[in-house]
Specification:
Structural class: alpha/beta
Shape: globular
CATH architecture: 2-Layer Sandwich
Distance between the termini: 22 Å
Oligomer: single chain
Helix content: 40-55%
CATH class: Alpha Beta
Number of strands: 5
Largest sheet: 5 strands, parallel
Strand content: 15-25%
CATH topology: Transcription Regulator spoIIAA
Number of domains: 1
Radius of gyration: 15 Å
Length: 160
Amino acid sequence: PQCTVEVLIPDFQGNWNALKIVAQSKPDVINHNIETVPSLYKKVRHRGNYQLSLKLIKRIKELDKNIVSKSGIMVGLGETKEEIIKVMEDLLAHNCEVITIGQYLRPSKAHLPVEKYYTDEEFKELEEIGYKLGFKEVFSGKLVRSSYHADEVYNEVIGR
């Protein structure tokens, strides 16, 4: 009973009934990663749809205001700081409460190369920007991934 449940979901290709089923199972956190900035979507998430992902994130809170909404982005693929900030603004406008920002690391030579390695200072700046914009929780760092400290995220958001 004291277990906290976070689910990481796909966009369900716009099948809102599938999202409804997930929400009805009452997870504590629903996470859907936006992954990258719109200008890189076709290159990074060729089967993804940025606007569809935003709509899905917004629907989480519409289905159940008690579920924490979360998303994540990987940086280092050629995006600009301004583009990252715009993604943050878009997520907030779609009721996202928690964001993770991590360094993209190339898993194999078959994957896209890293265009930039962000510094600790740059990750700290993105974290500060996220809080100033209004996220309830921001995890930003080289090794941050979408499930980064998931239990702490939930406790922090619920506790505020």
